[in-house]
Design a protein that fits this description.
about 15% strand, Rossmann fold, 3-stranded mixed sheet, globular, about 350 residues, alpha/beta, 14 strands, 2 domains
Length: about 350
């Protein structure tokens, strides 16, 4: 197998750190990674042997230079359009100089699929990653859409640059990196459950989201990177991969979290009733981010990873979401049981 120099953005995050941990198992790869501060740079270097590039998404020249020195860029951090353009510019220089195509693998998300049903129904026809025409026709205001569309537009020189967009759904499970190992959406639900002492949903919770365990997700990226290096991955107009392994109603997801909280925090829920009920607008504002929370947590995001399974041979096999919640919930119970003001709403979608 050919060697590859990979520049990773997001190495200190939940998703990016997990991808890095998986790819480091392959000794044919060498890595550089963008970090904002020296202390994290030192840890990446000393603990993982990863060469740090200190900077931020505002440092466009830093991004261009690091991309120009890499065969593959994996952006697992941001939808920042100027930064993405800088990465593309650097990779095009790399591909033009080396005589072989450079790759940009963008970690987008199935939040781009979200509708506005306010938790009232699951009547969204699942999106297939082979149905590029339907995906491209999503409204411009969808999150991730501007960067996704830009990358689709950069397909005129496939011998120089090849772009691949990956769209994970809701990710669960303990991360594999050395920094942030906590998922995104599940902690929001857990924190809201603990703070409100309710078996609550955003809307009625009759909407569905795709899910994937982080262990299965990193195996997907392992297969994708190998396929890209070998010239076997889809790219350009067809370079779009979902990575779901199943889906759940949000009401069921919230119920699983509530059950885990009750199991871990008998102290907290003696004054509540276990009957599931929609949260109030003020509670959604506080714990889920208001209108954005209604859109993401009460919308459908249904996908089918047929391209990943057929072309890459990806076979998800990790535990179901409800089987993994005890450790996640226990962390938030210990963190928040004595100070509800520590709840910090937020989500990567």
């Amino acid at each position: 197998m050919s060697t590859a120099k990979i520049f990773l953005l997001g190495a200190t995050g939940y998703v990016g750190g997990s991808i890095l941990a998986q790819l480091l198992k392959n000794k044919d790869y060498t890595f550089t990674a963008l970090v904002r501060d020296q202390s994290r740079a030192d840890r990446l270097k000393s603990e993982l042997g990863v060469e740090p590039v200190i900077g931020s998404f505002e440092d466009l020249e830093v991004l261009k230079k690091a991309a120009e020195e890499s065969d593959i860029v994996i952006n697992a951090w941001s939808d920042d359009l100027p930064a993405t353009k800088a990465l593309v510019e650097g990779l095009k220089k790399r591909g033009g100089r080396s005589g072989k195509p450079a790759y940009l693998i963008q970690v987008s998300g199935t939040g781009v699929l979200c509708d506005h049903v306010n938790g009232e129904s699951d009547e969204q026809e699942p999106f297939d990653d082979y149905d590029i025409k339907r995906i491209r026709a999503l409204p411009d205001e969808q999150i991730h859409k501007d960067v996704d569309d830009y990358l689709f537009s950069q397909n005129d020189q496939p011998d120089v640059l090849r772009t691949i967009i990956t769209c994970p759904p809701l990710i669960y499970g303990k991360g594999l990196g050395i920094f942030n190992v906590r998922s995104k959406q599940i902690p929001v639900i857990a924190q809201a459950t603990i703070a409100t002492r309710k078996n609550g949903t955003v809307g009625k919770g009759l909407n569905k989201w795709g899910t994937v365990h982080v262990d299965d997700l990193v195996k997907f990226f392992d297969l994708l990177v190998r396929a890209a290096i070998d010239g076997k991955a889809s790219y350009g107009d067809e370079g779009f991969y979902f990575a779901e392994s199943g889906e759940e109603y949000l009401k069921d997801m919230s119920q699983h979290v509530f059950d885990a909280v009750v199991k871990k925090a008998g102290w907290a829920l003696v004054d509540t009733v276990p009957v599931q009920t929609p949260l109030t607008d003020s509670e959604v504002d506080k714990y889920y981010g208001g209108a954005f929370g209604y859109w993401i947590f009460a919308g459908n995001s249904r996908s089918r990873a047929n391209r990943a399974k057929k072309e890459l041979g990806w076979k998800p096999e990790a535990p179901e979401l409800w089987e993994t919640l005890d450790e996640e919930v226990e962390y938030w119970v210990e963190k928040l049981k004595n100070d509800e003001t520590k709840v910090e709403p937020g989500v990567d979608a």
